[in-house]
Design brief:
The chain is an alpha+beta fold. The chain has six helices and 19 strands. Helix content is about 20%, strand content about 20%. The chain has a 13-stranded mixed β-sheet, sandwiched between helices. Strands 6-5-9-8 form a four-stranded antiparallel β-sheet, with no helix packed on it. The chain is globular, with a radius of gyration of 22 Å. Bound molecules: zinc ion. This is Galactose-1-phosphate uridylyltransferase.
Length: about 425
Amino acid sequence: MSRTDAEGTASTARTARVRRTRVLMADGRELFYFDDTEPFVSGEPRAGEDTRDLPPASGGSRMRRDPLTGEQVPMASNRMDRTFLPSRAMCPLCPTVPGGPGTEIPAAGYDVVVFENRFPSLSTRDEEPDSLVDGDPTWPERAAAGRTEVVCFTAEHDASFASLTPSRARTVVEAWADRTTELQALPHVRDVFCFENRGKEIGVTLAHPHGQVYAYPYVPPRTAQHTAQAAAHHARTGRDLLGDVLDAEVRSGRRVVARGEHWTAFVPAAARWPVEVHLVPHRHVLDLAELDDAERDELAHLYPDLLARLDRFFVGPDGEAIPLPYIAGWFAAPVGPERDGERAALPRLHLQVFSVLRAPGKLKFLAGSESGQGAWVSDTTPERIADRIRELPSAFPGAVVTTPVDEQPSEQPVPPSPEPVPSSDPSVPVAGEGTP
Ligand SMILES: [Zn+2]
């Protein structure tokens, strides 16, 4: 990928034909174009200037440590004012129509764009010194000195990740890898998490296809769990945990839904969500930046195909497929002293895609056990989820599209979930990150 920043310096690295251009937005935030089409990929400058009258970008987010759990809780009160489901004409992620009001992207078109979130929950701007809540050492408080970015997958407002061409999906992978490398290098950052919230059921506030990157100034709970489990497994066996899980899933084959040369997708044996798939690289890599060209290429084919199958998982009463609301997150190894040790003792990069939809029109609510205890009770079985996905046609050669002969076909393929227990408490909303 060739790079040109606002100061005009350029460097060339291996990888796909993608050109990165860095510009500054009207309020000083950074924006990166990742161009894979002409004329920009060949060097035509990105000239559009953000002419909006915006106050300087601010941060000032704080986080407090919960003494009962040891977890950090960022306090992002500025996010209350963020844009909520604007009309299509007011979409801040669409290109700026020449002569029209400025959006976040000051160009008449783009391929993939990444920019700093205007309403960040983590920010390195306006860092205040560490302090104590009410002056009491029980509650330490410090700057939530990380960064949150928005990744626009395409300029097309009505598209989805599943509809991206492999070459555009590859450009998104390049953008993820680029942001992973740069954000890991920030002084306080301990974990970089690339994710997508899709669908209003997840709490998405903007319909335009986009994802986010969070660079946390602490190791978030799930990555901490993955890290502890991987280290314990390595101490016992000398091997990497997810590598052994992958081998076991392939040995069984029961829940595998797609398998390529470099990646395998399966419903994990202890899946928690009504729909859940993990996508795991065959090589032990720590993060997206460590993927090589061949792994990135196959990912750009396999992943949109997998999402397209998930978009046919549920069929409504009218016979129409229901686009799946989902959360897709790339779990990587933490950044920091952990990386000085044995690589195989660190968690392997992988993607988790999961949905709160358990039947057409019915959401899984995170009630007392899940929200209160973080203790999951599944409404279905991983094997039923896998059976349904394996029924769905795929354009990817390694996708499993037929039910094994030794398995009985599912009695109720659509939907695969049993009827809900009526006593479940619907008062707790589903988990979901708000979007910019
Ligand atoms: Zn849009």
